[in-house]
Amino acid sequence: MNVPIKLTDRKRQAIVDAAIAEFRASGFESTSMDKVAATAGVSKRTVYNHFPSKDELFAHILQQLWCSTSSLEDTPYDSALPLRAQLLDMLWKKMAMLEDAYFLDLARVAIAEAIHSPERAHDMVARLSAKEEGITRWLRAAQADGKLRPADPVLASHMLQGQLKTFAFWPQVTLNQPPLDLATQTTVVEATVDMFLAYYGTHVAG
């Protein structure tokens, strides 16, 4: 049974969507709450009822971006499963997130503001980076199990995920290129895992 969305929730989402569009088009400083209200089709008072300030509205957008990475936290290391299969599962989750249009819109807003006003975005960007700790913990557990060779797990995590971002994130965010087709996604994911295991794997890796 579908639960109807409350009018107040629809208005709140309309405000967020409008803010993303305005921040993308004009940047943080040039975006006003009046513009957001007009784009959302609501009164300025309604905007302020949901978000007391432009800073809080922007922080909410970045919070959504932060929370959208939480699926990467849901893959605990399993010593009984082959290493390659687990890595493929994690990277496919990452790929699904990177091709999501809403995630890419949020990322564009965050990155643009980080460029124009590093001090405003610094704290949230640090929190976004920390969310990748889920993969780092997985790598650390695999090392403790003797399946990956000893190495800095944070660096290894960036190496692993950076390959995907090279093809399935930065071109889309900065050049507005379309998402990768399924065949290319498969090639990128599998090649990334195989290259990673060729360097970090041990003879006991599954």
From TrEMBL:
Molecular function via GO: DNA-binding transcription factor activity; transcription cis-regulatory region binding
Statement: the UniProt record of this protein carries the keyword Glycosyltransferase: no
Residue ranges of every copy of the HTH tetR-type domain listed in the record: 9-69
Superkingdom field: Bacteria
Organism: Duganella phyllosphaerae
PROSITE patterns: HTH_TETR_1, HTH_TETR_2
DNA-binding interval(s): 32-51
InterPro entries in alphabetical order: DNA-bd_HTH_TetR-type_CS (IPR023772), Homeodomain-like_sf (IPR009057), HTH-type_TetR-like_transc_reg (IPR050109), HTH_TetR (IPR001647), Tet_transcr_reg_TetR-rel_C_sf (IPR036271), TetR_C_Proteobacteria (IPR039536)
Pfam families hit by this protein: TetR_C_7, TetR_N
Xref: PANTHER family: HTH-TYPE TRANSCRIPTIONAL REGULATOR RUTR, TRANSCRIPTIONAL REGULATOR TETR FAMILY
Protein name, as recorded: HTH-type transcriptional regulator RutR
Sorted UniProt keywords: DNA-binding, Repressor, Transcription, Transcription regulation
